[in-house]
Amino acid sequence: MAAMADKNQIDRFLMLHSARSDQWREVLTAAQNWAAGQGDRATVVAELSDVALIEELHAYPGVRLMSRLRERIAEGEADAVVSMVRRISDAILTGAFAQQTDGGAATDGDDGLPEVLPSVLSGRDAHRPYFEVLLVTPQPASRWAAMAAEFRRLRRPEDQFVYEPVIVGSFEDALCAVLVNASIQAVIAAEGFALRSEHDAPILRTILDSALGKMEPSSSALTLAALIKKIRPELDLYVTSDRDIETLAASPRSSCVRRIFYAVEEVLELHLAILEGVAARYETPFFDNLKRYAQRPIGTFHALPIARGKSVFRSNWIRDMGEFYGINLFLAESSATTGGLDSLLEPTGNIKKAQDMAARAFGADHVFFVTNGTSTSNKMVVQALVAPGDIVIVDRNCHKSHHYGLVLTGGQPIYAEAYPLTQYSMYGAVPLKAIKDALLKLKEEGRLGRLRLLDLTNCTFDGHMYNTRRVMEECLAIKPDLIFLWDEAWSGFAHWSPFLRPRTAMGAAAAIEEWLAEPTSVEAYEAQQKELGAKPSRQKLMETRLIPDPRKVRLRVYQTNSTHKSMSAIRQGSMVLVKDVDYRKVESQFHEAVFTHASTSPNQQLIASLDVARRQMELEGYGLVMNAISIALRIRQAVNSHPVISKYFRILGADALIPAEFRQSGFKDYLAEGVNWGDVVKAMREDEFYLDPTRMTLVCGDAGFDGTQFKGLLASRFDIQVNKTSRNSVLLQSNINNTRSDVAHLLRVLLEICGEIEEGLRNGGEGARKAFAARTKSLMHDVPDLPNFSHFHDAFRKDAGKLTPEGDMRTAFFMAYDESACEYVPLNGPETDKRLAGGPDLVSANFVIPYPPGFPIMVPGQVLTKETIDFMRKLDVKEIHGYEAARGLKLIKPDALPGPRGGKTAQA
After folding, report:
1. Nearest to 277 by CA among 307, 318, 235, 340
2. Which residues is 464 bridged to in the sheet?
3. CB-count exposure of residue 906 (10 Å: 0-12, 13-18, 19+)
4. Which range among 2-16, 536-550, 850-864 shows the weakest confidence by mean pLDDT?
5. How far apart are CA 528 and CA 99, in angstroms?
6. Does the reported pTM lie above 0.90?
7. Whose CA, among 437, 605, 663, 718, lies 20 to 30 Å from 686?
8. What DSSP state is assigned to residue 99?
């Protein structure tokens, strides 16, 4: 990022994390130039000085190996320096140092330098997983080597894991270490350490002042532990003290600490506690049992011939499937729920335990595994919470599963409109003012009791993340028992980033829960009520950041995530996360919803992958997400700064996708001049909407491609798969699977396409240039306006209010089952224009969903307006669900509508 060019700042967290291997390559280049007589020793020393700062926060290469490297530089052994730096660099890049039996420490033998063949290709036997433990100590640095050696002496052959200590001496260095070093799995804080780092850390100090809030940065181990828990909640925290540890242990502040030890009198117990803590996260109850089940000699007399694989491997015709997938897939297949397995519909054994462990990991009270995708998760939650006639405020641009869920339950939607991004044929997110307006209007009419649920997508397809805490707090200030459903299908990974977690449903719910317990929360509420007065106007309430009454709030939050979209789960693996103080009141109906939608034959491998995905994210999710963010920032910078690529392609920043009125911090883009991570954190805390950096809208219209065309080109010619498309863009998404090689491939392909465009323009003459200009103008400027939801026909608003636009979509949906009640009207025919002008109303009989943009522009019971018809007529997409061009628009006949027939209806 622009303001992070100073390599001597220790707190360039994310860039340090991602640039570590690059910095070592710079050291290698300097060493090679020195050895070849094209450089000097001073340059090597300077480059090593830059990388040494970040290496203080990692166990490998370690103090001894770095000292040996400096000695060889001082002795002028250029060739030896090149060899050492190359092997260190390769070991860091591949992670090969973690495969040594002694972990990351340099030994007294060779140079402590490992072989660098990636472990996935090395063919070695199973190894003990390696991690690092942060020790924050008041001891002088001269004692650190002896302390590290003491921990190494505790290792035993029977230990399940191997770890190396990383030792720091200050509060600030400890925070930098947990931010930068993703290998850290546990922290030991010994009371009495210093506050400030010896290194420059201005960005950290800016963030720290805000992050600590009322906590004063001090040498208190509990203060440090509390802050680390907010940054990386998965870490195991231990405190050692030579003071009154009984009082320390009894303090409510110690709840975030796994165990407290008196001084270092029980070093072995501390060692065992560390291993046990990591083992508790490493355990995968269902996957472990499934592996054991697959190794047993099972006789199968049930309805799953593929189980055990005999029908496959003994076949002359389908044996290739067995050879492709391997024997374990079939040995682990079963339709049984006994013999070490469990039932997904009513889990009581290892699936139940796996779900409980997922709840712990994601900060939820309950988690439910779903094997039919988040489409099913959403319908389960809607069915469990919404009864016929309940009102639901819902983003019209949400996934179709929410709309269909409301049809199934009979919930009546108030469609809240997201702000439009017309130039790119997409929508953003729903402004808070639109949500509050609906709530306040319901309250004015005395109908707030019918409102059951607020249903929003976070993040949106294009990366818009809500200020979830503010949305929930202000809504709870109007209706204290409102239930929230956050569809986080695309952002399940966000829990593992301290920069994104506060914007997740569970992250915000935890913050609200903490605030509700503070005595000052009631004081803040009462102070605001005094300021507002007895009868504040709707306008006054709209303009005020409302504070809920902590004594009345019932915090009820549901989150769905597509685990398979952003974590290592098999396709259709999903989770429902619950944090609901009144869950016991809906538990039975929630189980009914599970019985309704879940398969009675769930895939065992899919359940196992959900279990394993949780394990991975608890143990390495932080580093994986950091890498995904780093990959995305590299792509953004490379595309937008390349002199050729940027002429035809660009990746949109926050300033293009989020209007300034919703960026209260003034944040413009991750790559804007002068921006640092302090600015990013400020935007995350303050702005109404925040852009997920891993979701990149690549504009391709300036290259003459519409989104669908460009997506097809990338797939067919270059084997590059992208996410969604719009009229003039495609969506790229970095995830935990991406590598720097993927970045290089993408850039090479974009450059090749740019070269072909320029060659065509050169060779095609004036005619080609005019055609290209016309094409880009059509894609980038002659774009259709995006229609808002119009209104439901009065026939479907019999119990609706006058101020809000909800309607009975379910009745309209099932009317379409009667063909005699429906008609088809040609989209471009004169009858459509005639009825738009003078009636009778055009009332949609079904959902019409064009891809892109991928949301319903027509829903059952909706009155179609000129804006909607004009948008449909201008669409040039190939895929429109619910619309048959040969037959026309499917409508409910005017004389089939309940109540008054025909005529024009008034919009609510």
Report:
1. 235
2. 691
3. exposed
4. 2-16
5. 59
6. yes
7. 437
8. G
Spatial distance between the Cα atoms of 194 and 211, rounded to a whole number of angstroms: 19
**Structure token pair of residue 730:** 């495609």
Q: Can you tell me the distance from the alpha carbon of 830 to that of 812, in angstroms, rounded to the nearest whole number?
A: 25
Are residues 223 and 217 in contact, defined by beta-carbon separation less than 8 angstroms? yes
Measured CA to CA, the distance from residue 793 to residue 902 in angstroms comes to 10
> What is the per-residue burial (b if ≥16 Cβ within 10 Å, else e) of 339-377?
ebbbebeebebbbbbbbbbbbbbbbbbbbbbbbbbbbbb
Under 8 Å between Cβ of 355 and 316:
no
| Beta bridge partners of residue 665, listed in sequence order | none
| Cβ density class 378-405: b for 16+ within 10 Å, e for less | bbbbbbbbbeeebbbbbbbbbbbbbbbb
Say how many Å lie between the first and final Cα of the chain, rounded. Answer: 48
Residue 882 in tokens = 């619910």
Q: What is the 3-state secondary structure (H, E, C) of 442-497?
A: HHHCCCHHHEEEEEEECCCCCCEEECHHHHHHHHHHHCCCCEEEEECCCCHHHHHC
Q: Give the three-state DSSP class for 349.
A: coil
Q: Are strands 862-863 and 791-792 parallel, antiparallel or unpaired?
A: antiparallel
Query: β-strands 574-580, 366-370: how paired?
Result: antiparallel
135 vs 179: CA distance, rounded Å: 15
Amino acid sitting at position 78: A
Token pair, residue 197, equals 């780092």
**pLDDT tens string 779-831:** 999 988 889 999 999 999 999 999 999 999 999 999 999 999 999 999 999 99
Structure tokens at 537: 């106007």
State the Cα angle at 454 between 376 and 865, rounded to 5°: 90
Q: In the structure, what pLDDT confidence band is assigned to residue 632 with cuts at 50, 70 and 90?
A: very high
Q: Name the maximum alpha-carbon separation found in the chain.
A: 97
Q: Both tokens of residue 74?
A: 């001082």
At residue 218 the predicted structure's pLDDT band, cuts being 50, 70 and 90, is: low
712 residue type, one letter? G
- Residue 491 burial (C-beta neighbours within 10 Å; 0-12, 13-18, 19+): buried
Evaluate the CA torsion angle 906, 482, 591, 372 in order and state its sign: positive
